[in-house]
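Two proteins, back to back. First:
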Amino acid sequence: MTTSKGSWSLKVVVPSIIVPLLLSLLFLKLMPKETAMKSYEIFGVKIEKNPPQSKLTELGVTTWKTWEGGPMKIPWSFETEETMYLLKGKVKVIIEGSGGSFEIGGGDLVVFPKGMNITWEVIEAVKKHYSLKK
């Protein structure tokens, strides 16, 4: 704190990631509930909550490869863009180098960009369909 002629001023240093994150949260809070959490992007990851069956059919999700696993924590690097549809479970995704994280779970359609480095922490056993961009 500094003082100048009896007045006080406070300088606050905020990491550059905080302001966009707070604005995103505020934006989601102000949106109508039916829109708020349907589709959004965080740390460059696109997430759509409970997409319509027509979209899943159009994407051919049931023809994609399947992966499943119980509680574990593994580092992962996306060598190509990966789209996944989580059938069940819950995962905490920790973004390497940012200190940020978010959770995804059953019913989420998620697109991870090529080159992203994360730690994949399975909280509840997961089963997912996934497709790698060619």
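And the second protein:
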Amino acid sequence: MEGRKALTWKYYAKKILYYLRQQKILNNLKAFLQQPDDYESYLEGAIYIDQYCNPLSDISLKDIQAQIDSIVELVCKTLRGINSRHPSLAFKAGESSMIMEIELQSQVLDAMNYVLYDQLKFKGNRMDYYNALNLYMHQVLIRRTGIPISMSLLYLTIARQLGVPLEPVNFPSHFLLRWCQGAEGVRKKTHMELEPPGDSSLPLSPSSPLQRATLDIFDYIYIDAFGKGKQLTVKECEYLIGQHVTAALYGVVNVKKVLQRMVGNLLSLGKREGIDQSYQLLRDSLDLYLAMYPDQVQLLLLQARLYFHLGIWPEKSFCLVLKVLDILQHIQTLDPGQHGAVGYLVQHTLEHIERKKEEVGVEVKLRSHEKHRDVCYSIGLIMKHKRYGYNCVIYGWDPTCMMGHEWIRNMNVHSLPHGHHQPFYNVLVEDGSCRYAAQENLEYNVEPQEISHPDVGRYFSEFTGTHYIPNAELEIRYPEDLESVYETVQNIYSAKKEDVE
């Protein structure tokens, strides 16, 4: 249907599609994780994470691989100028081959660095490091930037296609790749995961025969894909993060550990999320982490608290509250020692269910009521914030500020001329946030435009070009507002017409 109509139908259709696609992707991921340890499709695993967090986007392994193949072709073109007889130039698409000679591998990496960082301008995202987009492979390719782990997976995938067997290193604070320089090249199987004898926190010395015999970390060069493919020694790796580390941390990790780190990064970002009340990134990253490690008690507790928090909002699904009980039962089975935390959440969940049973109807706000006489604006109007300049649409109002004392103090509401004793409005802002704005800070937007917010369809059925029309649910709560909107819009445009004349 036309873009401005049927907004509520589209909103809930997207919700359903979001859920159905996520369930399919999660099943695919679980099947993928059952592969043998030597199945090393790091890119495929990363794309499952990307798809799960962006289920409405058109993301596929085939399309991502095609984009990477295009980069490989550019690398081959550059490589041909370095060595026209290089064996990598004879590789066929999809072929799994390895180059044994270090010098030939080095030529591939030189060509890669030129194409990725000089020609295509890929770079580590230092300016916006804590952005979830840096972890989504399709976004890394579109924006040509990412963080160490996503840049490393791109670099590793290209190198392996060209016969250079780089390996992922789960280095603390900065994901790296390692490149074997040993005499036996790629055929050597080292004991990297063993701890050195004695004090394992001490830096290792390449001159120590005992350590050289058991730990071959000095047989590798370490590659920083985030830092334009810079090649590092063991000592330079320590300088990179500013600390000494044990030899075990230079070891290669399997696909599951790489995905664990990617999801762990998303989980950290989800905990910081504060734009809206959905906590979607936190929910998605918890789902992914628990798909890999289903018995993580602390994360299960976090998930239970999160669903409980979401469930206590009247507009949220009652099913979220019931899901808390299922999670808590699982936690109790895994760790009876969590009885106190589990009991607390169970008690409050059951109390909430009882309160829900007692609730009758919804609060109806009539503009004609005496206590609402100071409310000037109506739901559906496109407004502009006088101080911050953002555009927004009103989806609710209160005759006075209904927030707690702490919020009023933190937002410095008392500094406003009318303080908290004035109408406040719930607004959807064009940047995707939801805000609570004082009446004196809002004004009509004389040039109204659509508000690009994911929750617009939750409250409105149509955008007319001048205002939004509330859906049936919102109109029940504000039955007199739509007529007021029509009057307001008519007055605004009559005034504009008089000004022109």
